[in-house]
Protein 1
Amino acid sequence: MPANVTSKTANARTPPSKPNKSKPSVDTRELGIHSYLGYLRDRLVEARDLLTESGSIFVQIGDENVHRVRSVLDEVFGSDNFVSQIAFKTTGGATGALLPGNVDHLLWFAKNTDVVKFRSVYRTKEMGGAGGSGYDLFEMEDGTRFRPKDSEEVPATARRFQLTTLMSQSVGRAKGEGAASWFPVEIGGRVFRPSMQARWKTNESGMAHLLAANRVAIQGATVRYVRYFDDFSAFPITNLWDDTQTGSGMDKVYVVQTNSKVIQRCMLMCTDPGDLVLDPTCGSGTTAYVAEQWGRRWITIDTSRVALALARQRLMGAKFPYFLLADSPEGRRKETDLSGALGAGPTNGDIRKGFVYERVQHITLKSIANNPDIRDGMTRSEIDAAIKRHAEYELLYDKPYEDRRRCGSPGRLRWRVCRRIGPLRSPARCPTTCRVARRRLIWMAVVRRSCKRF
């Protein structure tokens, strides 16, 4: 099974002159940050060996040591396998002597970026807020377009839109006169051409469809594409997560506890239901909790019996939603209602075939330009219907349909304690599940999920 490793670490600082109980235990190591980086590198090497080819690893670190840990990850995984450095908000009211910091970082590396598993995760657009800024133009039902004045009231039936570029400067495509996507466009008696360093984003046939759909508007000395707010009600997340601060997605119990929304996004981006997630720093068990909630198999490890006892208690006392399986009679009926596609063959309840997800229509310039049903003389409602018939849908992997008649629990958990003295390199003396631990660890424990909830 695919194995994705999620590693969490706290900030590592040079040890203070006096012990400070509020700081992580790594601060008291003999060589300070050097001991910590050596400790981390040993575990990253083992994590790399455990990963499947399409797997990913996430390391959480503060801004004081992110550059050091990034160098270690570059060494272990190779700089070519770096995917992204994600900054996520941890608090909304930070203070500091100089510039307050309110973000932590996730360093995302892949075992192999050529085949890494990735699923786009989306957020809902908010009018004037996240994903919804810039839609400051309106279109009336009769086709009149305008920008309202500050005190002007806009009818509720008006449609919001923005104007975006119709030209592309992408590298590797022919540009200038004679190129396939370089041609004159005539609107209202005026002729427009792209610059010699650019080209249109579509060909002449596609531009004709855009003009027929009234999706091209004049702005200054050029023409631009008309993008309505409701063309796509969501937007993809980037490497800046500003909605993850404490209070927005969880009730934080422990000081170093990671927001469950952060772990959830990492998991949804890089795994499918039934995949295996490994967390070698269990802590309070948030990774295992999120994995259980979203139908992932998991293994979590810690050197502390206290941490594992807390995680075990948290999991055993939890109730989880029961999501509709795509490979189930109920899931197939729901999928048929949503997409019209009829499933063939028997159902086996295989979680690896995923859940049934909510979806949103995504109308793009490309889908309109390639739409064969659009022609001159169509009414506004006929054009909109033709566009919707050929538009694609995006799955919302964080919104599977729930079967509210059922609820899930983690079932039986297997607790394994491994004791040994000396290096943990001998496979004959240490189980395979303990390969993440090396050299300096005297004992470790593993909590592993051993029965399916779905």
Protein 2
Amino acid sequence: MAWVRGFGVAAVQLSIAVACGGDASLIEAAGEGDDARVGYLLSHGTPVDEPGAEGSTALYWGRPRGTRLTVALLLAHGADANNKTARNSTPLEVAAGQNHPEIVRRLLDSGAATDVQSDDFGSSPLMMAASYGHEQVAKMLVQHGANLEFRNHRGQTALNSAAREGYTPIVELLIASGADVNATTPSGFSPLYVAAMFGHTDSVRLLLAAHADPTLAAADGTTALDAARRGDHAEVVAQLEAATGR
């Protein structure tokens, strides 16, 4: 039970058995963050991976309102950290997107795969963290070997997503970890292009310092400088004019 360090699972479950009845489903209890009932149901033989709607299990629902103890209890009883719903969504993807770093750590320590593509947007857990600016989670995923060049259904990488939103710490993390600064989508949008388009001066600075190519053109023939001018982002325009000599 290495996953439940510091929680005293045996003692918790003993008190749970006295305090709870067993009429609620495990998935409901996990989703409500009812650690006591989760422990009771598990200690009384409820299958830990019993599927619910669209194949989701209690572990999948244990992170919206669930606690670290909820997840620890489920993992300690053998919950499948890689269970997928009917839409290929995993507990790790959702925990990463909702910024639960401790739950992400426990899932990773339990063997959760980092590069699973969901059906909805095709994003990996790292892409979810990068898209929403969850720096600590992104760092954990990178440290666990997440594929930096994983692409969603639009052909975007995690760096492209972070640059588009101007999440400078994540842009810096991904660059330092070796992400391709010139990775383009099928529409030709590079991380530098989207950072310039939305006027993210710090991200533009980091990308240029990492040798992102300011002359790369999108499918419509426009460059990052054109995008910055179109958006009237004067500081970014100055940065790119200096980089291109235009």
Protein 3
Amino acid sequence: MTITQILFRLVFAAVAMSHSSAAVAQLVCKKKTTGYFKLVLAVSAASIKLGGMETPLTSALGDSVRGMQISASEDKGNCLACHKIPQLSDQPDHGNLGPSLDGVGMRYNEAQLRQMIVDPSSFFPDTVMPRYHSTEGFSRVSTQFDGKTILSAQDVEDVVAFLKTLR
């Protein structure tokens, strides 16, 4: 047995013990471009029974084209700083800190996607992803941004509309 196989078994056992018996955890080993392997823990939406934020933040429907622009914008969502989004392959410098967003519209429903943007730590407690529609939980905020959210309510709905198209 290789060290990688041992690590997979240890991590899988730890995850299985930390979730209910109904939880199904999957360990995925994906090759990085440098030739090294990175361990990624993927827990399906069904296994952690995510509820989500059912009520939209605005009465206006989300605009998926605008949501795509926000996701790619360094001044707004800046999703590409941490995530790979194959549908935005024309944009440079996709990150690999967070999971790829390819297929996210099939893995999660609209309410779950909205909640992940508004408060990702409610689903993933150890995440470094910020709360995009909150004024709490930030430290050392510049006075010009104090009391302001990263994304407006409509921005959130637009990003959700875009993420729903990623199937």
